[in-house]
Amino acid sequence: MNAPWKSGPMGNRDPFAAYICDEATLDVLRPVVVEMGWAPEKCYRGGLRNAVQSLSISASPAILLVDLSESGDPLNDINALAEVCEPGTVVIATGQVNDVRLYRDLLASGIHDYLLKPLSATQLRDALTNAQAVFSAPRHVDGDGDKPHIATAIVGTRGGVGASTLATSLAWLFSMEHQRSTALLDLDVHFGTGALSLDLEPGRGLTDAIENPSRIDGLFIERAMIRANDRLAIMSAEAPINAPLMTDGTAFLQLEEEFRQSFEMTVIDLPRNMLINFPHLLTEVNVVALVSELTLASARDTIRILSWLKSNAPGATPMIVCNRMLTSGSEISKADFEASIERKINFMIPLDQKAAVNAAKLGQTFAEANKSAKSAQVMRDIAGAILGAGEAGGAEEKADGKSGSLLDKLALKSLLGSKKDKSAAMPAE
Fold first, then answer.
1. Which of 94, 175, 214, 401 could anchor a disulfide with 232, C-beta 3.0 to 4.6 Å?
2. Strands (E), 82-235
């Protein structure tokens, strides 16, 4: 099961249904169901597998009571049930096996409660009342409610500059070192590495959201997101590469809105093409971290994206991060890069290939796996700056973007000329 069933308002779904193997239990259950104000016709004969078959073609109820008595592999069958249940369903299981390990495994899988047969009316009444109470409980958000929600988008100016590495590290830092409840949204639907960096399966959360944006609500968020730790949850996908992205972006806006209600921080790993296709994604973003490198192409695209941000996301504070900084031998100098983009680089993360390999081997984010590394310390500084910018309402001054020839701005004619000279001097193969 990718994520446990969680709680929230019942909405318009049926309040209750049960799939029970024996008539004796049904005879005890139906009067309690009537007492609760629910329809006794929703108490069906048949166990867990009948529930899976039925719910695969119909909407699941808010509270589901399912009988495991005829199940040869309860945990595996529960996983099958999770695939067909609507997000937010509270599931109560019942069965004849009195095994504490099974009980613990079922609770760990997301089951709300496990009731041992034979069932009494009092036992059922208490279990159903507790399940119903779950829906009226206030949604829990870790941390201080007075803290403003801060949304950060991480955008790589070129492929392979380490934007995803920074996004996952920042999300981990916010959740662990700053104790903020954090949502990580990996919008590289086909090739995202957010879940992989956290040693998690991506699940179907993002794919389901794109396919059914009308289902997105607090219940969906709680069910569809994968937990990395107590304060960090990720929504991502590993969509088939023969399935193109078919969406108008409504799902992404709704996800961002639900994140604002449920978390203190949102980190969006945002591929460049998403800026073009869904410009509204940055409407409510506080900080946009542009991850770059000291190359001519990256300087060009940093200029272009800064200009785009000025027109399309004027409320967002841009932050320039140069990643994988070399001690020498960069394609262009730091001074030339800053002259070209007409603003200073905010942070420079040194290249540390050994630390990157270490993080991959451990299945951890870069910042978690390399806490004492200089590059990880820079990431901590970036996290602190984002918190400061977000809490200050994005008051950082934004540099004016001016048009002009990139080569003139870079003043790299001599550099490019020397490259051509070297190329011309190379012997033909």
1. 175
2. 90-95, 113-116, 150-156, 182-186, 226-229, 232-235
DSSP code at position 390: H
In terms of pLDDT, which residue wins out, 54 or 203?
54
Question: Residue 347 carries which DSSP code?
Answer: E
Where does 263-352 have alpha helices with state H? 272-277, 296-312, 334-341
Q: How far apart are CA 314 and CA 398, in angstroms?
A: 9
Instruction: Tell me the Cα Rg of the chain.
Output: 26
What pTM did the predictor assign? 0.61
* Cα three-residue angle 162-353-418, rounded to 5 degrees: 75
What is the helix (H) or strand (E) element at residue 64, kind and residue range?
strand 63-67
Task: Name the more confident of 70 and 301.
Answer: 301
Coil vs helix vs strand at 288: strand
**Residue written as token pair 């016709």:** 41
Query: How far, in Å, CA of 206 to CA of 389, rounded?
Result: 28
Q: Read off φ and ψ for residue 288, nearest 5 degrees.
A: -115, 115
CA distances from 335 to 294, 382, 418 (A): 10, 21, 19
The whole-number pLDDT of residue 139 equals 46
Query: Above 90 in pLDDT, residue 59?
Result: no
Cis preceding-peptide flag for 40 (omega within 30 of 0): no
Across 10-19, 113-122, 181-190, 336-345, least confident range: 10-19
